[in-house]
């Protein structure tokens, strides 16, 4: 049986907020009985874009992470819901039924991802319903993925077996797999949002003038093992990305320099500045 999934490429999201605006446009001022009550005008972002900045000037990385209801296969919200207020459809979509969920704030509290919201005026728990009312009318994409200008968001209607093949072939991940909720929202390039980098700029003195050292080999070692190898660009700059925060001591080897530069990587990215080659 085919089920609905969403794939988000973190590397392609540039925080245009189009998906979030499309969600607000769809659900604010509209009622969809059996699917969703009207979205609260303020404070609710059923599709939200988290941002993260790491590094120091002039080498800074900014990344964005769209988050929403994960439509889990093992939804914690459904475990605490009473009177069938939360249902898991055969097509993978999780719905908070507005006609049955009134007063059940525990549904919001049960979400480990914090992507369920409490509508104080209506006394209702609410979350993004995967635009199920549109898909049931024959739509093949959610509104967010339909309008995404960079195609960072893809709607997939495939079998579980086909989805797992895509997970392997594209290196897809889910948020916080340790929660055991088994989300149907998958991410590509997820490390971009959570990782840090070590970078710098190589220089060389030529006839008394300090120049950018381009196309110089740079290697990053840890514990005697090669972590990565790259070359400096036209401006002498290099960068080793997708490193784990707090991963400790590294040795940086630039060009033919006999002595490596020792780097202690903590929770934030490190820009080493200008590094003069011998």
What's the short story on this structure?
By secondary structure, the protein is α+β, with helices and mostly antiparallel strands. The protein has helices at 18-27, 76-80, 98-101, 106-109, 132-135, 143-147, 160-170, 191-194; strands spanning 2-9, 48-56, 59-67, 86-88, 94-96, 117-119, 124-126, 153-159, 185-188, 196-206, 209-212, 217-222, 225-231, 237-243, 248-254, 261-265, 270-276. It has two domains: 2-193, Alpha-Beta Plaits (2-Layer Sandwich); 196-276, Immunoglobulin-like, CATH 2.60.40.
Written overview of the protein:
The protein is α+β, with helices and mostly antiparallel strands and 278 residues long. The protein has 2 domains: 2-193, 2-Layer Sandwich (Alpha-Beta Plaits), CATH 3.30.70.20; 196-276, Immunoglobulins (Immunoglobulin-like, Sandwich), CATH 2.60.40.10. 17% of the residues lie in helices and 37% in strands. The protein has helices spanning 18-27, 76-80, 98-101, 106-109, 132-135, 143-147, 160-170, 191-194, and strands at residues 2-9, 48-56, 59-67, 86-88, 94-96, 117-119, 124-126, 153-159, 185-188, 196-206, 209-212, 217-222, 225-231, 237-243, 248-254, 261-265, 270-276. The strands form 6 sheets. Strands 10, 11, 14 and 17 form a 4-stranded mixed β-sheet that branches. A 4-stranded antiparallel β-sheet has the order 13-12-15-16, with no helix packed on it. A 3-stranded mixed β-sheet has the order 8-1-9. The radius of gyration is 23 Å and the shape is elongated. The termini are far apart. 33% of the residues are buried.
